[in-house]
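Tokens for chain A. Residues wanted.
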């Protein structure tokens, strides 16, 4: 089992920045990758970014490429999402996810955090 706890959400003005954190505990040695997803009101959950646990390769949705950066601290078992140049359309609940089955390329994750709200005002 892997437990994920997100933090760092909040209210920010358009153009501002926020950094989300996701602390993983439990069987973290079994992880292939971790990712961030988001879900806005009335919309389906969408992929934001992913990072491979070993090697650190990163992947982004086109909508956030160049503005968001995903990174990891293996020693702390923590993944971060640095969000810059935020837009009102980035408003959503952001979820951290972890993959222990090797299905991250299919955007299939088996562990999820509780979510953290990010609100960007115009």
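Reply:
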């Amino acid at each position: 089992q892997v437990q994920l706890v997100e933090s760092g959400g909040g209210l920010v003005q358009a153009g501002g920045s926020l950094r989300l954190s996701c602390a993983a505990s439990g069987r973290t040695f079994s992880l292939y990758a971790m990712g961030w997803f988001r879900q806005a009101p009335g919309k389906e959950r969408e992929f934001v970014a992913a990072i491979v646990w070993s090697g650190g390769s990163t992947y982004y949705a086109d909508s956030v490429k160049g503005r968001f950066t995903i990174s990891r601290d293996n020693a702390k078992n923590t993944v971060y999402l640095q969000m810059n140049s935020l837009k009102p359309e980035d408003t959503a609940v952001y979820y951290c996810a972890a993959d222990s089955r090797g299905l991250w390329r299919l955007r299939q994750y088996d562990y999820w955090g509780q979510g953290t709200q990010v609100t960007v005002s115009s």
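The chain has a mean pLDDT of 95. The chain is about 0% helix and 50% strand.
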